[in-house]
Amino acid sequence: MKRILAGAIVLALGVGAHGFAQSLDELNIQIHGYATQGFLYTTNNNILTTHSSDGSPAWTEAVLNVGAQPIPKLRIGVQGRFFLLGNFGNSVTLDWAAADYKPDERLGVRFGKVKTPSGLFNDIQDIDPSYIWSLLPQSIYPINSRNSILAHYGGVAYGTFKLGAKAGKLEYRGWGGERQIGSGDGYLLVQAEAGLLLPNGLGGATYGAAVHWRSPLSGLMIGASAGKDPEWTAKLTAGNGALTGTESTAPLNIPSYFALYEKNKVMVAAEYSRLPVSITLQFTGLPPSYERIDYRSWYAMASYKLTSKLTAGVYDSQQFNRQAALGPARYSKDWTISGRYDFGQYLYAKAEEHIIDGTAVGYDTDLNPNGLKPNTKLTILKVGVSF
Amino acid sequence: MKKLILSSLFAFAALILAAGAGAQVIVIANPSVKASGVSKDDLKDVFTGNATTLKDGSKVVPVLLKDGPANEEFLKAYVGKGDTAYRAGWRSLVFSGQASMPKSLDDDAAVVAFVAHNPGAIGYVDKATPHEGVKVLEVQ
Hints:
The complex is a heterodimer of chains A (387) and B (140).
Chain A: H1 2-19, H2 24-27, E1 30-42, E2 56-71, E3 74-85, E4 88-104, E5 107-115, H3 146-149, E6 151-162, E7 169-181, H4 189-193, E8 202-214, E9 220-229, E10 232-238, E11 243-249, E12 252-263, E13 266-283, E14 289-305, E15 310-321, E16 331-342, E17 347-357, E18 375-386
Antiparallel strand pairs in A: 1-2, 1-18, 2-3, 3-4, 4-5, 5-6, 6-7, 7-8, 8-9, 9-12, 10-11, 11-13, 12-13, 13-14, 14-15, 15-16, 16-17, 17-18
Chain B: H1 2-20, E1 25-29, E2 37-38, H2 40-47, E3 61-65, H3 69-79, H4 83-95, E4 103-105, H5 108-117, E5 121-126, E6 135-139
Parallel strand pairs in B: 2-6, 3-4, 3-5
Antiparallel strand pairs in B: 1-5, 1-6
């Protein structure tokens, strides 16, 4: 699938070479970026692989985006990111690198490494300057798996159809390609800490579709998406390589239903999603073992712009693993209040308080060696700059 | 005492009138744009990156003012957002690879000049700004 990315880069270079005949202004080259620094403090437990119970500043992100539009119907761009959150990241990764051709309002195509437009916020979940929250609802947008679910190698087709003056508009997105969940991803963290390693990560084909109905009621959008992954298989090791085998995930269907109302100073949104995963672990010479996870996740959120610079918001985010044993590890309930202050167009600060009940989301065992308390409060302070 | 109350009322009324008499914004387009008018919904879609054509099929490219009263008035009247929230919306599109940031120009004269010289360009300026070389779109 990297060939698709290579193709996009070759196309970009080709267009760039064509563009040498043009002035930089005509190419509409733009450079944007943002950087954020976060601080986390928890009353119980260490969260997101940080030493948050002592107070942790280990959350830094910096993004650089370069784009060009050599002709009106074609845009090309690339975005890189430095990401550090506790033990996650601490490296520069490619967010996306794509060419986008849009001949008509009803059909556009984007290919290369592209954002996956599933759910309500998936394709913008990493863009901190664009929303009030320090952490999006972790039940559906877990930050420790963000790099894996944010984008895929392949393409997206998209477009908009007007349904008439009284019926609103219908936006669609269809995507396909290959996704790679890195060996250090949050989804794989618990089993990695148990000694079950996927040295090459886990990945394979992925495809899906989403529709957004922009209703005639101004500001109201209702949508649904479905992501499909066929069976994925990857190399598995345990006991420092003494055991080798494979880990397979059965074909996966990830439905998501969502609604967003955004008008003037008010934003209200809600989303429901299900993630059912069946895993088979097969070590050579041993009988297979099976694990089944069935996450049912939802959130409801609202925010209000109190002044031109100050926004306040609240959300309730919940996740249940229907296959887990009864107890705090089966669920996570997260009540969050948040505030954002914009000093101007470029500089902002955020403060957020989470009241978390249950331990299903965001914890690891290495940094909580004495076990997890069933609830905690998490305070986040964040400052960001964007241009 | 009555005089004082009357004077205060007049002063208050004058203040209200003065506040209401701020920038009156007009929407302008390059003469290549076929439409003579634009609906509020179309205008909002174009300036929030959700559409690149008007109802009659005219392809348009938005251009923004960096700041100022005409900018505030346009965003409040036709987009329903303040400047910070509005630009945050564009950043979502830019950083997710869905759009390029529209040009932001320093003043009304620069917007008029840009719109006049770029086919498909659509912008907004204070009504009092001289706007030769562009067409004024009626917002319906």
